[in-house]
Specification:
InterPro entries: SAM-dependent_MTases_sf (IPR029063). This protein is an alpha/beta fold. It has 6 helices and 7 strands.
Length: 174
């Protein structure tokens, strides 16, 4: 497998722009999704990047000096003090959730959504046929996954999903 490409980065960030507000990125790695967020008008000071790998943390701090870069496990995000005090309006996930145990996926989702505004959207990608957050986890956390599209030019092709709180969707439908 190759690292995430431009087609996937464009698709996973296409609904986020300068008007979104604070954006959380889990597992930014070298920052390809981060580059696209900045290109779409998201100010670096509105970004919080959560990366566990110390080498990537150093690179991200150099490339995005005004972003908050946290060297922690994404599942621990809910247990630390909010870096800038506000809730996130969107989250982008570059973590390989499919390779993680269900309990770890649930901890990551619970942690992220504890720091997100009620109407915020969480974007993730997968190389599989369905969302990489298991249906039972979505149900337990009151979340719903919506398929956004497929990045066919990514190697391998990847699907992008938007995850939101169920209660927020029902409120929007009224």
């Amino acid at each position: 497998m190759a690292p995430s490409g431009r087609a996937l980065a464009s698709l996973i960030t296409r609904e986020i722009d300068q008007g979104t507000g604070k954006v959380l990125e889990l597992g930014p790695g070298t920052g390809i999704f981060t580059d696209h967020l900045v290109a779409r008008g998201v100010d670096q000071s509105d970004l919080t990047l959560v990366e566990q790998n110390p080498n990537f943390v150093r690179l991200l701090k150099q490339r995005f000096p005004r972003a908050a870069v946290l060297e922690i496990d994404a599942a621990a995000l809910g247990s630390i003090r909010q870096p800038r005090g506000e809730l996130f309006s969107a989250a982008v996930c570059g973590l390989g959730l499919r390779s993680m145990p269900v309990g770890q996926i649930e901890a990551i989702m619970r942690s992220a959504f504890s720091r997100m505004a009620p109407d915020a959207a969480f974007y993730l990608f997968t190389y599989g046929c369905r969302c990489s957050v298991p249906a039972e986890v979505l149900k337990r956390l009151g979340l719903i996954a919506e398929h956004v599209g497929v990045a066919l030019l990514n190697l391998p092709p990847a699907s992008v999903y938007r995850i939101r709180r169920v209660c927020e969707l029902s409120r929007c439908a009224q």
